[in-house]
Amino acid sequence: MNELVSEGLSARGFGDIRPAHGALAQHIGDRGSRITDLAQLAQVTKPTVVYLVNELGRLGYVERIPDPADGRAKLVRLTERGRRAQQAARELVAQIEEDWTRALGRQDFDSLRTLLERLHEALWPVSEDSTGA
After folding, report:
1. Angle at alpha carbon of residue 25, lines to 11 and 101, rounded to 5°
2. Model pTM above 0.70
3. Domain 2-131, architecture per CATH
4. What residues pair up with 70 in beta bridges, in sequence order?
5. What is the mean pLDDT of residues 9-28?
6. Fewer CB under 10 Å: which end of the chain, C or N?
7. How far is it, in rounded angstroms, from Cα 6 to Cα 103?
């Protein structure tokens, strides 16, 4: 799916976004996200997130802003260009899911999604620390 989204983004004028960028950017919240949270959600190291955020910043997709909850911390937030790319990616994912549903049928596609979600939960269980509980 990442490759298909990346190809689709390129066709929509976002050819400088690589799949690794998308794997991170999809987790950036509307009000911004901390590096540590992005690392956990994207399942990569903090140095990897910093590298990708630096690249996305250079390309004009994200910016760093002060965290209103902690004056010492910074949040990563999408720029207008980043929001347009994120919206395009969401539209592409919806189209891909429609295509796959047509190819497999609704029941099989729903089963595939359920099985993949179960596998993800088994491999990467959500801890109380990661939910903020």
Report:
1. 60
2. yes
3. Orthogonal Bundle (1.10)
4. 67
5. 93
6. C
7. 21
Q: Hey, how many other C-beta atoms are within 10 angstroms of the C-beta on 38? A: 23
Structure tokens at 50: 């910093």
The CA radius of gyration of the chain, in Å to the nearest whole number, is 16
Amino acid occupying residue 130: S
pLDDT at residue 127, rounded to an integer:
61
Nearest to 40 by CA among 132, 117, 111, 108: 132
DSSP string, the chain: -HHHHHHHHHHTT-TT--HHHHHHHTT--TT-B-HHHHHHHHTS-HHHHHHHHHHHHHTTSEEEEEETTEEEEEEEEE-HHHHHHHHHHHHHHHHHHHHHHHHH-HHHHHHHHHHHHHHHHHHSPPPHHHHT-
Question: What digits encode the pLDDT tens for the residues 55-106?
Answer: 999 999 999 999 988 878 899 999 999 999 999 999 999 999 999 999 999 9
